[in-house]
Design brief:
The protein is mostly beta strands and about 160 residues long. The chain has one helix and nine strands, in the order αβββββββββ. The protein has one domain. It has an eight-stranded antiparallel beta barrel with strand order 1-2-3-4-9-8-7-6. The chain starts with 20 loop residues before the first helix and ends in an 11-residue tail after the last strand.
Length: about 160
């Protein structure tokens, strides 16, 4: 688990400061949640959302996470926590969403250029690493948990 003691805590890639020590302690007390939504709007893409400080840090993924290859990702504005459990139409005519995977995660790394989390979900168990490239775009890579650690990859 990432420790924030005695240093500024910056939200990965967003330049926004987490508001309080109590907020960080709360995140450490219980595992934060995540969801990956299949989003049908002008084609299909997947939204990876990580719970952090009363909001969801969000990346748009071109494909579902898979150990086969890194995929292109795009950082999106934060979303409301309601999306952790929401399925259905998105306001403003922005298509529909359904939960593709969900569960809890641990922060492994959180910086301006890199985010790594360990997922413990219904479909995915393993590590997701989001990296900001030199060109300013993001990539997402998934590494399944070792079979001895009680998890598997996609399904």
């Amino acid at each position: 688990m990432l420790k924030w003691e005695g240093q500024p805590r910056w939200l990965a890639g967003m330049g926004q400061r987490l508001e309080s020590d109590a907020e960080a302690a709360s995140e450490q007390a219980e595992m934060p949640r995540y969801v990956i939504q299949e989003h049908h709007h002008q084609g299909v893409h997947w939204d990876l959302m990580l719970e952090s400080g009363g909001r969801l840090l969000t990346w748009r993924l071109e494909h579902p996470l898979s150990p086969d290859r890194p995929i292109r990702a795009e950082s999106l504005p934060d979303h409301r926590l309601a999306y952790l459990e929401y399925e259905g139409p998105v306001s403003g005519g922005r298509g529909t969403v359904r939960r593709w995977d969900w569960g809890q995660f641990d922060w492994l790394e959180r910086s301006g250029e890199s985010v790594a989390v360990r997922l413990a979900g219904r479909r995915l168990r393993g590590t997701v690493h989001l990296s900001l490239t030199a060109g300013g775009s993001w990539t997402a890579a998934f590494r399944p948990a070792e079979s001895g650690s009680g998890g598997s990859s996609s399904g």
